[in-house]
């Protein structure tokens, strides 16, 4: 018998790959399509910056609070009254958090059940709070940003949304919330879509590579399906049945027709989902902005030399009512960034260098940010632009989206550097903080993941319900394609193993 030619072997292996990988992959793809539709309207639980600020008690002017205690000079410092009284929250160099009484400077290392309940009631005034216990992590608290707050106190609120809140055991702050609607729909939404059923910790290599392997396998299923579908379709003279598909009416023909119609969008979404996992770090930045050099904290410390009570009074005199103060440094200049309950900001700076005379400003000057921004990278700063509108990389999503917790305020300065990665850095004119940086690899990742997966260019987002309707229709098509594959696979497995039995 003559040896089979390699084109024939390739063709046979393509058929077998699609058949048997599809048996396993179609069910997973069907789950992804169904859960993706849910995610259009209900996102994974998060505590957005504006929701957190809106729940904080105001820091009242007229208090005789002294300046931060000496130990506060060793890390990032914030003042708020989330736990019921003004407290400094110090993030130390090792990432751990320390809570200091603002009046006495005494340290509180742990917040117990009663303190957690008090914080929860302040977070949602008028709602009854029920303590559920303490935990390290559950299905709603995988975020690495919560690591410094663990273990977490879990409290159920009797508000209209039946909100489940999590309180830090180290700072007494509410750090996560999940409404009943989010919890219920996420079992068939983001929690299912991201395969969090397999995730056991914030950094979980097993989960990461499981998702990468499954996504890559489904990409193979989609690619082989497109090839097989085109091979079997007669573009010229039809088959004897009069159809251009060789299959008799039934599931196989529907799978063939749906595949030709929706295989491209299926492949696009599965491939972009794979890209979201940043396999092998292909979208990681080669060089990141040097935030320490941008701040240029003096050796003797970078705190504004002024009593906290004086800072609060200066803000009150300017008509600003803060709920949080943050001590920062920009290009060696200490200042306080104040935030109010509406996510507004003010800058407090010392005029005389001693903190005796304070200036409250709404934003930094462009010249100051340009000089400081030039220190961010070991490369020439080649272009600076003031942006009053969002661009393709710096934009804001609604709170239900995966990136919906990013504030992305305007206006910003966009800085372009002549480094190997052609890095873009966006500086917030109000706060002076780096909002976003993206080198060439990260920008490519934005197109291969965010655009292909979420259709999030500005004109697309502006289309509103029309964008959502198109995404739903395409998802239904992909779900029908995957569902038909599930039926075909189940029948084939039943025939195969039934015959053996």
Automatic annotation (TrEMBL):
Signal peptide: none annotated. The chain crosses the membrane at residues 20-44, 206-233, 254-274, 469-490. Keywords: Membrane, Transmembrane, Transmembrane helix. The keyword Membrane applies. PANTHER family: BLR3280 PROTEIN, IRON-REGULATED INNER MEMBRANE PROTEIN-RELATED. This is PepSY domain-containing protein. It comes from Herbaspirillum frisingense GSF30.
């Amino acid at each position: 018998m003559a040896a089979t030619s390699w084109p024939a072997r390739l063709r046979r292996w393509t058929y077998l790959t699609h058949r048997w990988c599809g048996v396993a992959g179609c069910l997973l793809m069907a789950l992804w399509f169904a859960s993706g539709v849910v995610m259009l309207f209900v996102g994974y639980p998060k505590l957005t910056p504006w929701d957190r600020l809106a729940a904080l008690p105001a820091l009242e002017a007229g208090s005789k609070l002294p300046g931060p205690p000496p130990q506060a000079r060793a890390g990032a410092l914030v003042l708020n009254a989330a736990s019921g009284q003004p407290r400094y929250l110090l993030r130390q160099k090792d990432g751990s958090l320390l809570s200091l009484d603002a009046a006495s400077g005494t340290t509180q290392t742990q917040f117990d059940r009663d303190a957690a309940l008090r914080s929860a009631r302040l977070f949602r005034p008028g709602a009854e709070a029920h303590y559920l216990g303490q935990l390290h992590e559950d299905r709603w608290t995988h975020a690495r940003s919560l690591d410094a707050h663990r273990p977490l106190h879990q409290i159920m609120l009797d508000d209209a949304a039946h909100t489940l809140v999590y309180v830090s055991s180290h700072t007494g702050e509410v750090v996560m919330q999940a409404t009943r609607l989010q919890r219920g729909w996420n079992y068939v939404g983001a929690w299912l879509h991201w395969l969090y059923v397999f995730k056991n910790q914030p950094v979980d290599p097993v989960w990461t590579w499981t998702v990468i392997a499954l996504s890559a396998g489904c990409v193979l299923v989609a690619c082989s399906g497109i090839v097989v579908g085109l091979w079997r379709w007669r573009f010229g003279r039809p088959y004897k049945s009069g159809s251009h598909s060789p299959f008799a009416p039934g599931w196989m023909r529907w799978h063939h027709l749906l595949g030709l119609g929706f295989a491209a969008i299926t492949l696009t979404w599965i491939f972009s989902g794979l890209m979201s996992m940043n396999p092998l770090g292909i979208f990681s930045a080669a060089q990141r902005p040097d935030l320490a050099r941008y701040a240029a904290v003096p050796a003797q410390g970078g705190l504004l030399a002024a009593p906290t009570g004086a800072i609060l009074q200066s803000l009150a005199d300017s008509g600003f009512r803060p709920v949080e103060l943050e001590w920062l440094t920009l290009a060696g200049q200490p200042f306080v960034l104040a935030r109010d309950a509406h996510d507004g900001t003010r800058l407090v700076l010392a005029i005389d260098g001693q903190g005796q005379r304070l200036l409250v400003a709404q934003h930094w000057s462009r010249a100051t940010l340009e000089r400081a921004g030039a220190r961010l990278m070991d490369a020439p700063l080649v272009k600076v632009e003031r942006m009053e509108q969002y661009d393709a990389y710096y934009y804001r999503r609604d709170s239900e989206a995966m990136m919906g917790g990013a504030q992305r305020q305007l206006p910003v300065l966009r800085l372009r550097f002549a480094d190997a990665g052609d890095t873009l850095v966006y500086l917030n004119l109000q706060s002076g903080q780096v909002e976003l940086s993206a080198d060439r690899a990260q920008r490519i990742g934005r197109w291969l993941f965010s655009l292909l997966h979420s259709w999030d260019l500005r004109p697309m987002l502006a289309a509103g319900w029309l964008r959502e309707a198109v995404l739903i229709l395409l998802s239904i098509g992909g779900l029908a394609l995957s569902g038909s594959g599930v039926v075909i696979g189940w029948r084939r497995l039943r025939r195969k193993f039934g015959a053996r039995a």
